[in-house]
Amino acid sequence: MSRRVLLHVGTPKTGTSYLQDVLFRNRAQLLKHGISYPADRFDAQFLAALDLMRLRWGGLEQDAVGAWDLLAQRIRDHDGTSIISHEILATASRTQVARALESLGHQPGGDTSDGGTEVHLILSVRDLVRQIPAEWQENVKHRAAFRYARFLELIRDPERSHRVGAWFWGVQEIPDILARWGADIPPERIHLVTVPPADGPKDELWRRFSLAFGLDDLDLDLGTERSNPSLGVPESALIRRINRAAARDLSPAHYRPLVRELLAHRTFSKRTGSPRLGLPPDLYPWVRELTGSWIAELTEKKYDVIGDLEDLRGAPRPTGPFVDPDRPPPRQVNNAAIDAIKALLLEAAHRQAENERLRLELEDARREIIRARTPRLMRSMEWTVRRLESNDTGRKALGVYRMARGRNSRSA
Amino acid sequence: MPPNDAALDRVTGEGQRRAWAWAAALREGATTPWHEWSGTGEAFRPRLPGAQQLELLRRLNLAASRAGREVPVRLADRILAAGVSGRGRGDLGLIGADPDQRFGPRPVDPGTLPDEELLRVAAGLIADDVAATGVGAEPDRSLIERVRAVRRPWVPSYVIVGSQWLVEPCVDDLVARGHRPGGRQPMAYLLADDLASVIAHAWTARAFDQGGQRWPAFLEGFAQAGHLPPRADLARMARSAARRYGAGRVTVVLDPSQLADRLGVRALAAPPRLGAHAVDLVRRVGEPLGLLVPTEQRPALLRATLARRLDGRGGPSLTIPRRWDTWLRTQAERIHHEIAAAGYPVLGDLDRLLPGPLVDDAVLPDDAEVLALAVGLLLDPMTPRPAAGPTTEEGS
Q1: Which residue in the set A55, A109, A161 is minimally distant from B87, CB to CB?
Q2: What is the pLDDT of residues B340-369, one digit of tens each?
Q3: In whole angstroms, what is the distance from residue B123 CA to residue B325 CA?
Q4: For A175, what's the count of Cα atoms within 13 Å in the CB-facing half-sphere?
Q5: Does B40 sit behind a cis peptide bond, omega within 30 degrees of 0 on the bond before it?
Q6: Please, what are the domains in chain A?
Q7: Residue A225 above 60 pLDDT?
Q8: Which of A150, B116, B207, B352 is the most buried (most CB within 10 A)?
Q9: Which of B46, B91, B294 sits opposite A65 (nearest CB)?
């Protein structure tokens, strides 16, 4: 039976991709220290979360059948500390939370006296000033075609009747996430990791994660290629327009590598000079009030805070103009579009070259098959003909033979 | 269900006690709506179920009492313990049950919940039942069935292509009669119908293997893009068959009885007749089922279970709303023209491709009707497949 489980359930856009990448690439090193991060592929725990919550995800759920039970089994089989981390777990319902905790060996009230697992809930959190635009952007990178204004309208609907609003608050409303996940966990085992302000020290977030997960003294490879980079205003606007025009015609299997990976992550995220997406100025008072109520609630609950709850207030309203992604500067969108076309052309050229290489390889293979099936006598004859054709005497002899064969053929 | 004191929700106020009493009464078969409920009681399970689960149970009690039946306590407990599948709001609180609640989705009067919310719970439960039937993609066949399925040498070489929804039952039946498709240089028969029906079949096939969009959204997406769903584009299917089997070896079938004559059978088997609401229920159940069984098993499993149970039910067949008339006619005429121009032989009248006039009151899936079907399936659930044993033929 595993003694401890560090259960990191979100929230999205708080450096979770980076953390999960570090954990995945250091699995062996962690295990040497008794820490298990059970995952055979980088998205194994994401699949487990889909399975737990019975969520469709553009076809990825096909690989998720039975994934949660498998993960829970591996955790129960590990004698030591195990880590689970995926941000979409934040939206799990109370029923799903109960199933998850039970499958991990959690006893009511977190009782460990009878061999129950000591579950620690970890929630990394970031201010809404950054989360709101980031979530719209994430929607856009997942085929959404609605405007920023529409998104803001949906998340401000108090009924949360639209799936966008329901999802947003499901993964972002910190007190509610903790009420669902933490109802049966002692508050001292609930850890809040706040994301430092954008102008804070570069490694501060990792330092806080490291503290929360007890990774401080471990020698881990922190270099990573996986991250979830943010986009600027024109780039976000462009992807939304691409979605409107083409997402319906692209299957998830094509959308993912071409739009999300090639355009959003590998092309647009490198355009660092574009204006950043922000919160519209008129929403600052609403966010300030909401955040204040959250901070009051979290303070009252006496959770373990790694960082500072004040981080949740976010940066003050910027003095510069707000650049609206629903009315982006055309010139900037055009420039981003040129970069997109260039990237797609290069990709098309690369794929064409790859097709040509594969075609030649296939031709060679076909030739080899024919050769392997050709009788030895035939191969000897071909070899003889090639040798004779390589010099004058041989060619003359071959000519005489062909004339004789031709006469014979006619007479036949 | 025995209560576990350590895990029970704290019953802190009058609202909570009222909610627990309502839940307990529903478990015993009550049909009183929440807003009329006045009794109080204590917690009897670890967590108070969400408004969706409680209201679904009340609807089940209503349906059962109308039929002079009772909802078994075991089923009631299953519903109270169920999750809410898919995207959207999680378990919702009851209005008035917890006046101190400051965060999370607003509590609701469960009686005002849209049927859609109740269907999210019901679909998950039915998916569990379907998965538990254990029906595999390949049913066990008796010796006689296997002998009957041996290909007769005098059967002409043929393949059947077209709308998956029509082709699969037809081919399955032909195989069972020894008319196995294939052979040397087969003739490809493209099963066609009027385009409105073909589009409905395309959505039906999609409901079985992917789930996906509702019928109106499905139509709107393709109509606005100005093309047909790939599974309904008969001209494309004919071209594809011509490339594969040869241009002169494709025949378009608009009169199935003529094809039956050619193949030497009395009639071609038709798919189950599923009404609009039944197809929508399959679509909804398919989504959570996709997380319970491997993808490749899902369509066969749904056909072997839900499709059989819902055969002949679920209201009239789907139709296309009049607003898409221009799109439908344009596409039908294009297909008619392309098939005629390509010179494929036709069994029947090619004009049958052209849809009849669309009516104002199109038949669309209705959530209330879909929920009624789902409630029926919960009251009389599909049962797990019995352990394999000798079949009647083998045993006799």
Answers
A1: A55
A2: 999 999 999 999 999 988 888 899 999 999
A3: 33
A4: 19
A5: no
A6: 4-230+277-328 (3.40.50.300), 376-412 (no CATH)
A7: no
A8: B207
A9: B294
